[in-house]
Amino acid sequence: MAKSKNNIIRPHAEDAYQHELKALSKLDTKNKPDNWLLSPKSVVTYIVGGKLEDGTEIETKYYGNRRLIEVAVATLLTDRALLLLGIPGTAKTWLSEHLGAAISGTSKLLIQGTAGLSEEALRYGWNYAKLLAEGPSESSMTPSPVLKAMKEGKIVRIEELTRLPSDVQDSLITVLSEKTLPIPELNHEQQAIAGFNVIATANDRDKGVNELSSALRRRFNTVVMPLPKSFEEEVKIVQTRVEKFTQKLKMPKSKVPIEEIKRLITIFRELRQGGTVDGKMKLKAPGSTLSTAEAISVINNGVILATHFGTGTLTADDLSASLTGAIVKDPKTDAIAWKEYLETVIKDRKEWKDLYEACKSQ
């Protein structure tokens, strides 16, 4: 039975925003680097949003400093790879996916970093049935996303680079410095075609997992992904992503009072910063990241509860159901910080009485 594209839970960026990429390409008069779908300026427009000459609205994919995106795009034109570094939830993966879609027309050349990843996943493997029948040959090889990207002149994405074992990380050095992947079994090497580059992401709270060697780090230009600077910016991001979420699940038009989003973002920002917004009280900061992505998840869970088990409109009861779990990751230290905040801040805000009572009942 044929599967409808409308049933795909999370379509690739190049599929979800195909109309935007086509419109940008059609109107793009700037110089396009070899094997790039769009010019660098149009790539930035695709990421930060805008309105084209023909009236096409380009949705904002990244809310933040435009210059940061320009630096990231410019890096991919050089001989250095791009490393997006930041705490979880700062849109590293989101940005790398959209950069791949806008530059190469595909975000599918992806390696998900894990502690058990083998060197073959970065280089190449073998179809052992063919290998035994034919011996080493190109047809018996199983190319990795890196090898495919080198052959086709495309962007390859490597997620969670610091989770890769050190010896696997080191296999990237020749690829990044020489733009060549040796294939000794065939007495051959694959040289990278123009347009090839690597976008890697890393969580800067995981430095102790597998720290990058200085040799490998030198091959990357590092762009640090910050949390949203302003309260208003963070509220806007959450509001926009929640609306997309409800549309995708074909739920009734999102009934998420903006005040509930503002309350959640206030809580997250105060706990992250270790103090109330008015500066009158210092707070214990929990170990959880309390990122914008975490806030989006809390609201989305609340929307599901409100739609299927509540009034249809997000309330304090729906919000509180996921709030404690988002904050308390460590039952000992985080629970103490959250309880203190609940009793000294939320309890004293009269307009937050409903949220205080809902959280206490969890």
Q: Helix and strand layout, with pairings?
A:
Layout: H1 13-16, H2 18-27, H3 40-48, E1 50-51, E2 57-58, H4 66-75, E3 81-86, H5 92-104, E4 110-112, E5 124-126, H6 128-134, E6 141-143, H7 145-152, E7 155-159, H8 166-170, H9 172-178, E8 180-183, E9 188-191, E10 197-203, H10 214-217, E11 220-224, H11 231-248, H12 258-273, H13 292-309, H14 316-327, H15 333-346, H16 353-360
Parallel strand pairs: 3-10, 3-11, 4-7, 7-10
Antiparallel strand pairs: 1-2, 5-6, 8-9
Helix pairs in contact: 3-4, 3-5, 11-12, 11-13, 13-14, 14-16
Could you characterize the architecture of this molecule?
The protein is of the alpha/beta class. It has two domains: 5-224, Rossmann fold (3-Layer(aba) Sandwich); 231-360. The chain is built from 16 helices and eleven strands. The protein has helices spanning 13-16, 18-27, 40-48, 66-75, 92-104, 128-134, 145-152, 166-170, 172-178, 214-217, 231-248, 258-273, 292-309, 316-327, 333-346, 353-360, and strands at 50-51, 57-58, 81-86, 110-112, 124-126, 141-143, 155-159, 180-183, 188-191, 197-203, 220-224. The strands form four sheets. The protein has a five-stranded parallel beta sheet with strand order 4-7-10-3-11. Strands 1-2 form a two-stranded antiparallel sheet. A two-stranded antiparallel ribbon has the order 5-6. Helix 11 crosses helix 12 (258-273) and helix 14 crosses helix 16 (353-360).
